[in-house]
Amino acid sequence: MLPTDSALVLFSGGQDSTTCLAWALKHYARVETIGFDYGQRHAIELTVRPAVREQLRAFSPEWAARLGEDHMIDLSLLKNIAQTAMTHDIAIETQANGLPNTFVPGRNLLFMTVAATVAYRRGLTVLVGGMCETDFSGYPDCRDDTMKALQVALNLGMDSRYKLETPLMWRDKAQTWELAQELGGAALVDLIRSGTHTCYLGERGELHDWGYGCGKCPACELRARGYQQFAGGGV
């Protein structure tokens, strides 16, 4: 790690982005966060993210010193132009093109572009996101090829040398839990389990062993199955 290394983490308040934030705090001397309000159905994630962020700051004096500003961006235009199960109260199902209707077209492309714009102004050199194509819902904007192509486009368009880091790209959910344990021990695993939010339906009434959620949507199923494999030593 170089003293000049700096990162902007796409931080939603969910399991993956919290793990990525912990990863960035271990690897970079200066870390800032960015979140997006895009009219998501599970807007509860935006409610829990400040507390999760502050609890991560308290993990160690080193992390506290490295964690800088947070940036919240209004991207409600996504809800206005995308009729999806992530932004509207409609049943989750598979579309004719084979993708789930929880896919918000262009979401991660827009997130990274806006993040790069903020990073440009803030003098940050690395963009960190929780995209993953090993254990996910099939979203094309989570794929490694997409991120590599976007890195090229952003650097060409902004005459910069951004690096897009996706620490979870080749990890399944069980391995994501394992990474959290490596980064922050049982305390970080417990923070992610009880503090973060992943459920697409925004359900936060019952705390399961894997966290809060409806237990039935694709996000809950992935998170629960990964936790069970992790807790059972199947990683």
UniProtKB/TrEMBL annotation:
Keywords: ATP-binding, Ligase, Metal-binding, Nucleotide-binding, Queuosine biosynthesis, Zinc. Gene3D superfamilies: HUPs. InterPro entries: QueC, Rossmann-like_a/b/a_fold. One of its GO terms (molecular function) is ATP binding. GO terms for biological process: tRNA queuosine(34) biosynthetic process. Pfam families: QueC. Its EC number is 6.3.4.20. Its cofactor is Zn(2+). ATP binds at residues 11-21. Belongs to the QueC family. This is 7-cyano-7-deazaguanine synthase. The gene is queC.
